[in-house]
Amino acid sequence: MKREIITTADGSKTIQIKDWEEQYHSKHGAVQEAYHVFIKNGLELFQDTELDILEIGFGTGLNALITLKESGRLKLNIGYTGVEAYPISRTERQQLDYITSLKAESLGHMFDLMHDATWEKEVIISDNFRLKKEKKDFKKIASSRMFDLIYFDAFGARVQPELWTVAMFKKMYEALRTKGYLVTYAAKGSVRRAMQEVGFEVERLPGPPGKREMLRGHKV
Q: Is residue 1 scored above 90 in pLDDT?
């Protein structure tokens, strides 16, 4: 499918899939969305601890880069697993230029290492951030009680409804440790009900720019 780089409302860029009219990040602000959904309402629930994160949709690497950027402030030692079936190209990564958008020039070599790291192998990115990328279909995830936080950042239910089902959220619930959280930009009633059906306590939270609400699930 044809992909192109577009500029979002906050000046940061994302990838648009033309055939689907779907973006990797919100057109209302790629960086703003990432910070609001995954940092403010996910990562910041944890401070001064060790933390294992699963990202559904490693994609551009933006969420991983921002998590690395904020890990020092929050005093976190992070093990990060990013699952992605269709990695972006080096050219796309360079055109997205997230290092400039985040004013994070000191992290440039680490961001390159994230993308260039060997798949299926844990790589040390920094003293407090380890990354393992898994190249596979999300439906093949079979982890059990391995993670404290899940960034659920798959393409929307309009284009990939099979990723927003009871069966998928059951996999997510099982992958979390007790007291773990799942955060997603989605807010559809069908998604909320699917999460509740597998056992999540679900909160509706204010959404990022351009969205009224988002969802957060808690495994109690």
A: no
Q: Which whole-number Å values give the CA distances from 73 to 66, 103, 199, in the listed order? A: 12, 16, 32
Could you give the angle at the alpha carbon of 142 between the alpha carbons of 136 and 147, nearest 5°? Answer: 100
- Give, in degrees to the nearest 5, the angle at Cα 58 between 19 and 10: 70
**Distance in angstroms (rounded) separating the CA atoms of residues 95 and 53:** 27
Phi, psi angles (nearest 5°) of residue 61: 85, 0
- 170, 88 Cβ separation under 8 angstroms: no
**pLDDT digit string (tens) for 30-83?**
999 999 999 999 999 999 999 999 999 999 999 999 999 999 999 999 999 999
CATH of the domain at 37: 3.40.50.150
Q: Is residue 9 part of a domain?
A: no
- Residue ranges making up the domain that contains 71: 28-218
| Alpha-carbon span 70 to 61, nearest angstrom | 14
d(CA 123, CA 110): 11
Domain assignment present for residue 129? The answer is yes
Decide if 19 is inside a domain: no
Calpha distance 101→105 (Å, rounded): 10
Q: Is 161 helix (H, G, I), strand (E, B) or coil?
A: helix
The single-letter DSSP state of residue 10 is T
How many structural domains comprise the chain? 1
